[in-house]
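We modelled the chain as a single entity of 232 amino acids. Its sequence is:
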Amino acid sequence: MINRRVNNVEEALQGIENGMTIMLGGFGLCGIPENSIAELVSKRVTDLTCISNNAGVDDFGLGLLLQNRQIKKMISSYVGENAEFERQMLSGELEVELTPQGTLAEKCRAAQAGIPAFFTPAGYGTEVAEGKEVRDFNGKMHVMEHAFKADFAIVKAWKGDEAGNLIFKGTARNFNAVMAGAGKITIAEVEELVPAGTLDPNQIHIPGIMVNRIFKGEKFEKRIEQRTVRQK
């Protein structure tokens, strides 16, 4: 039986080098690959292009890579919770490509499915459409968007098996599900890793064919980006 398990995060991230393009799953701080991000910080790889819905916060998530000036370019849709991101963008230190959130998700999914490009009405008539092909479909103008090309896709799941099958929990399904299989190599870090063949096939969200390496993460903090509670 296929075994995609690797021993640890260091082994999982082998091959990541300076200047590469990396997808990272998560939404806010929910479902981010914490162990992998920490390892990228330790590896000190630089000039990275990171594709992620957002850029973490100042002291956690991708914010740690930004602090170390390891990211050259961010491709994302929401960046409002990171002061260091804002500072680097406004100063010109960081190249930023803001993308409508649905378009960002579809550019990942298209790469996952092997579709080179697609048309969407999102962004037509704005800076998002500058320099891109536009076409009329049923009387409505659409912008052609190309699928992402990433060297690595790094996702985080609740549970996986040694064959690479993944199950997400709750909101952590977000961008993780569309990024799995969307890079040349997909790495999955999971909270629980079980033997191949023990997961209920009907509960699997991403099949192992989409995953190249899987490992069990440790000491997940699972921070909450904005904690909102009811008044007593």
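As a brief sanity check on the tokenised model: Residues 82 and 215 are 29 Å apart (CA to CA). The radius of gyration is 18 Å.
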